[in-house]
Amino acid sequence: MVATSRQPIALVDAATQDLLTWAEQVQASDETILHKAQQLATRLGAHYRPADGLTEIGFWAPELGADMVQPKNIYLEIFTPKQAIAPQRPSQKVLFRRDYVELVKQGEYFWGVLSGLKAGTRHQLGSFYWLRYLDMDTNEVRVIGDCLAHSLPYGVYAPAEVYDLASLQAQRADRDYFGQGDRDEAGIIRVHPPRNILQLHVNTASPDGTLAGLTEAYQAIAQKLIHQTPLSPAEQNFIGYDAVQLLPIEPTVEYRGRHDLGQGFFIFNEDDMAEMDPDTEGIEQEPGDIKLTFRNPDTQNWGYDIVIFGCSATNPAVLRTLRPDELVDFIATLHNFPTGPIQVIYDIVYGHADNQGIELLNGRFLKGPNMYGQDVNHQNPTVRAILLEMQRRKNNTGADGIRVDGAQDFKFFNPLSGRVEYDDQYLSAMAEVVQQVGDHHRRLFSIFEDGRPWPAEGWEEISTYRDIIEFKPDAFQWGPLIFAHNTPSLQGFWERKWRRVTEQMQMGTNWITGCGNHDTLRRGTQVDPELPINWNLGDGLPEVLNNAYDNAAVTLLTYGFSPGLPMDFINCTQRAPWGFLRNTDDRYGVKVVSEEAGGFLDWQIIPETYDWPELFPRLKAMGFSKLGELRQFVRGLCDAIEDTHYDLDEVAHLCQQFITANPDSEEMQAAKATRKSAATLSQLNVPDKSAVLTELDVAKLKDFA
Fold first, then answer.
1. In sequence order, what DSSP letters do the residues of 326-354 get, joined into one string?
2. Statement: 319-573 belongs to CATH 3.20.20.80
3. Residue 1's pLDDT band (boundaries 50, 70, 90)?
4. Is the Cβ–Cβ distance between 243 and 198 less than 8 Å?
5. For residue range 576-611, what is the model confidence (pLDDT) as tens digits?
6. What string of H, E and C letters represents the secondary structure of 81-126?
7. CB distance 575 to 521 below 8 Å
8. What is the pLDDT of residues 612-633, one digit of tens each?
9. CATH 3.20.20.80 placement within the chain
């Protein structure tokens, strides 16, 4: 019998005992710690069973393993909608039934099988869930989210959604596709690599920034091809490829500043989160109705600012309907394309986590800060198992290949050798994760970005770019010209790179080559305009940039003579400006934007473009109406951040001081001797300066970012 929302939500004793017995048998086996953790990870999260309407729940919570934390203070909190939710509405308030269920603790794990949970489908949102517990040190009520969730429609700081994944897979329109191909002795199909790849960023490649919009774009192209209707110039850039690689679509960082509805996308009375019964010293657990406010996720990101948490789900900001079906529909559309199947490649970014991961993951997941935020603790067996399970669940949505970002970041200190070593065994395990769709099992093809020993000094010349290929001969790796520091706008670039050009010709069959990827234009816009620019390419920086990359000779070299697997980036082939200007966390937003915006504004934006009414509306609304002034402000902001080692209060103070002070005064002359920002910011102090420059405080700087 399928459960309905009218059924009471309760622990089903017999089914729960079966789950506990299975977990005990796994733990008691003679397998390795990693193998046992991998088996347990398959049952973590929420698994709705359509056959009997029950839902299995599992959490790994080592932070609750101490005996001093009493089980009575740990509850699964469940929110089941009593009204329809319209995912496309900007905001809405919905009535929910809130229930509490006590799961069964088994070591560091919590298990249970529950009746009455409502499963989400294509047409409705299901029950939401997370663990709540009482912090014995602070008496505050805290939450533990499901890091292996199938659906996070309101972001990583909201509870996860129970989802009917089995029905989603059963109804997909490309089920037969997964049975095609040669099988090995174990019956596993090996997916062969494509011939050429188009890289897409969903937020900018889609008309409305969603996977649904991208699906509609491909469906429209398919219909034109079927009926032999001419394609538009823009549509022509989408065809001719037999694979699409998506920039990461995992949940990313979220801006944590408050807004008019509260904070985040899933909002209710925050005081309610800290309820404790003073008599029992337990969490208040009376069930009842509660109204929750939802805000439609609107995070814009290039995809690489992930928090690891929830990587098995899809970033809700790229889902128009907030339904996992949207990703499956996109994949099925490409697999059924009229000119032949188009493969889908996922970009996997599990080598590091943004600092927000500290708030969302238990302490076992992270091992300390790095240049991106946090190093992920791949050596912990349970963490390793969960990461591989995250990838397995994501693979099961129907991808054909994976591209692993930053393979050189997967490293660890080996106490036996006394050295920091690269974790090639883990990289190999990522490539060997077996996909299951229906009754079909497949092993996907793999691509690695690996510039080891980056970021060590001199890495660009030292790196062979071939470590993974030699370790795993059937894998692909980014070639030495496409990888990074691709700056053909500089004088003598091709002369300096010629050794790499010939190397690519001689050894490139397993290299990814091409004229553009998500790093290409970004690297170009990071070139300091004071460096020796090749002015033979154009009269201004934008013209130089365009001719340096969009060059017939380079295109002929790449496609006519270079071996390997070519890849293009849609933003490059569309001749569209591209920069990593994105939402980031509240703490580092100003720093990230100042570093990225300066080059973008110098190299890719001209006054005529900036003056178009449709472009940069929010910057103009703030008062930045002049491009030259905006460029100078960003330069000064970047210098102020460097001068203060990113003390945001001090940055705001320098802006207030130097933009309003007389640039020729003795005070300013003295400041210029010690503060680089004094010279750049003081140039903004002209009679017709914009009013916004005199109002810059920390809040304004965050709004700007």
1. HHHHHHHHHHT-TTS--EEEEEE--SEE-
2. yes
3. very low
4. yes
5. 888 776 767 778 889 988 888 989 999 999 999 999
6. ECCCCCCCCCEEEEEEEEEEECCEEECCEEEEEEECCCCECCCCCC
7. no
8. 999 999 999 999 999 999 999 9
9. 319-573
